[in-house]
Structures are given as C-alpha cells and as structure tokens.
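User: When convenient, might I ask for sequence and structure tokens for a protein?

AI:
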Amino acid sequence: MMNKWEGIVLRTMPYGETNKIVTLLTKEAGKMTAMARGAKKPASRLSSITQIFVYGSFLMRTGKGMGSLEQGEPIDSMRHIREDLEATSYASYIVELVDRLTEDGERSSGVFNLLYEALHAINEGYDPEAIALFVEWKMLPVAGIHPVLHQCASCGSVEGEFAFSFQEIGFLCHRCFHTDPYIVRITPAQLKLIRTFATVPITQVGSLTLKKPTKQFMKKLVRQIYDEQVGLRLKSRSFLDQLDRTPSLLPPKEKPVESDE
C-alpha cells in the first residue's frame, strides 16, 4: 500500500553502503520506520529529505515488515538548526526524547504538533534551552507522568504558598508541607513558569527570555522527575551537560538589541 504522509525525521541509521533506515514521526500515522534505498548517495533524490530534523511530505510503501520510502519533498529543512551547534544540540535532545517516549504506529497529533512547534521555534532563533524545557514538561504525560500543577496535590487547595514535591509529583500548599520533608520551595513566579511550560502551547508564548539560573532550576526539577519516575537516559543529554559545564565550546553570539517599544 502506498501512503503519503507529512513527517519529521527523528533519526537515521546507515544500512549497507548506500541505504538508510529512516524513522519518521508522521502527522497521520505516528512513528514509522522505512528503508530509504540509495539515500546515502549524495546525488540521490532521497539524500536531502532524509536528514534529521527535516519536515517534509513523504511517499511510503507499507506492507508486511519494514516500509520503503519512495519519494519525499521538503516542507521545512530546518536549516538554521543544523548550522548552529547549540540549536543542533537541543534539537537533538528533543527528537531523541520524543523518539524514546513514542511507540511505532501510535498516532498522536499532539506530540507531532509539539515537535514541529519546538523545532520551528529553534529554527527561528528562539532560545533552544527554553524550548527544550517546554518539550520536557509537556512530554511528561506521554511518559505516563501527570504532575498536579493546578492545585495542592494533597488537599486540593488553590491558595497559599506552594512548594514542589517529588513525592507527590506536583505542588503542595503550605498547609501540607509536613507531608513531604524534601519539598523544594518555589516562588510565585516559578510556580507560574512551571504551569506555563506544562500547559501553554509554544506558539502562544512569544519571545520568552529566561535567565540562566531560572532555566537551570526548571531543568533540575523536570529532569529529576524523568530520572526517578521514568528512568530515561538519553545520549544527547550527556552532550548538553557538557555544554553547561564548558560554555566555551559554543561560539560567541551577538547580544540581542534591546527595544524601547
């Protein structure tokens, strides 16, 4: 059967001297894997369309076993991502996270839209570290984790001072702090930001500028949830950790011009 799907390339693997095995997250059919014959040849019509991060329209033949990628047309090549080390690093982390948390053939338009919005935002020059945080928080339900962020996880209160509890995987109000001796105190601004990461679509946030300590704090929270509750270990995360330790690996960038408007 021949199918035409829109998809984003999550990963590729060489197969033989000239072929690639390509994994796509498609809008219509979920995650699909196909053989792209001859795609390793520079002159192949499948060479450019089977690059990681590419968003395109793919013609795939499916049946028993692995499908075959016959044709493809790029919709968005995400060129900036591949030309910028920091953008590439965070985009790689995002696609690996999505890949590891999705099953083959499992349809999820929400995950596809999230992935496209994230890659598009990074490609447009938005802070890739902040975009990765959006994806991490929004993918928790896909991993089977549903943080309680709209009220106290213990008593249901929506008023008062709040802290984050890894025991409850959510917020605790000051009346319930005693239920978890290891709560992490948070400010009202941090509470609002966590809710923004978890619930607000990337396209509705606009240009979000966060200080490095804020991003580090939010990252520590969400990654501890993944470590303790999901047990997920990603190769791309190791390189991001290295970038954090040695920011000199990244070329200097021009500071954005502040506007009075």
The two ends are 55 Å apart (CA to CA).
